Amino acid sequence: DIQLTQSPSFLSASVGDRITITCRASQGISSYLAWYQQKPGKAPKLLIYAASTLQSGVPSRFSGSGSGTEFTLTISSLQPEDFATYYCQQLNSYPITFGPGTKVDIK
Amino acid sequence: QVQLQESGPGLVKPSETQSLTCAVSGYSISSGYYWGWIRQPPGKGLEWIGSIDHSGSTYYNPSLKSRVTISVDTSKNQFSLRVNSVTAADTAVYYCARQRGSLDVAEYWGQGTLVTVSS
């Protein structure tokens, strides 16, 4: 199985901050990586797929980059509704796996 | 728009079989895509369980494959999950989702249903 690690595990930030979350894969996965946002008690929401393609309806302050084994999710200017947990997901090979998550909290 | 709704018992006894159904509205399963199950133990991360297409082709997570069956009923526009021989480790929120492909993102999700394994 391809293992995904995320850093940091927890991030405290303020509205307006630029934040970056990193996802690393245990082996190369080309650009087969997605990012999801999950709020408490809710299902995950797809933000980005193919490492850098924004899902329809997702604000442009979200962006993704990377390929191979290292990927990043950036929020250019954190908004109140962005405080949530973020997960990366690899779609290169079975089984589909998720990273452990990064919780973004209000400073 | 596409909507998914999980249903099934919220409490299952250890060693028994857990069954969940996902009803799909706003899209016909027969028209395509893959239909998957993902679970999340309380306070923990996400685990992909498996997926199925309208013809019944399935993909399973090897960690669960021996205990899991995913099936589809196109006449009812729903798909189902069965997990045999459950233990406390199977306690989780179970989500159903529409995946773009067999090895692809989940772009539509159900709200999730908590299944607790306890005697």
How would you sum up this structure, described in words?
The complex is a heterodimer of chains A (107) and B (119). Chain A has 107 residues and is mainly β. Chain A is built from no helices and eleven strands. In chain A, the strands form two sheets. In chain A, strands 2, 4, 5, 6, 9, 10 and 11 form a seven-stranded mixed sheet that branches. In chain A, strands 1-3-8-7 form a four-stranded antiparallel sheet, with no helix packed on it. Chain A is globular. The mean pLDDT of chain A is 97. The N and C termini of chain B lie far apart (39 Å). Chain B is mainly beta and 119 residues long. In chain B, the strands form two sheets. In chain B, strands 2, 4, 5, 6, 9, 10 and 11 form a seven-stranded mixed sheet that branches. In chain B, strands 1-3-8-7 form a four-stranded antiparallel sheet, with no helix packed on it. In chain B, β4 and β5 form a beta hairpin. In chain B, 0% of the residues lie in helices and 50% in strands. The A-B interface holds A 1, 32, 34, 36, 42-46, 49, 55, 87, 89, 91-101 and B 45-48, 59-63, 95, 97, 103-107, 109-112.
Are there runs of chain B of 5+ residues with pLDDT below 50, and where? none
What is the general shape of chain B? globular
Mean pLDDT across all residues of chain B, rounded? 97
Portion in helices of chain B: under 10%
Number of strands of chain A: 11
Order of helices and strands of chain B: EEEEEEEEEEE
Question: Termini distance of chain A?
Answer: 36 Å
Determine the oligomeric state from the structure. heterodimer
Shape of chain A: globular
Helix tally of chain A equals 0
Termini separation of chain B = 39 Å
How many E-type strands of chain B?
Answer: 11
Rg of chain A to the nearest angstrom? 13 Å
Task: Summarize this structure as a short list of keywords or feature phrases.
heterodimer; A: 107 residues; mainly beta; seven-stranded mixed beta sheet; B: 119 residues; 0% helix
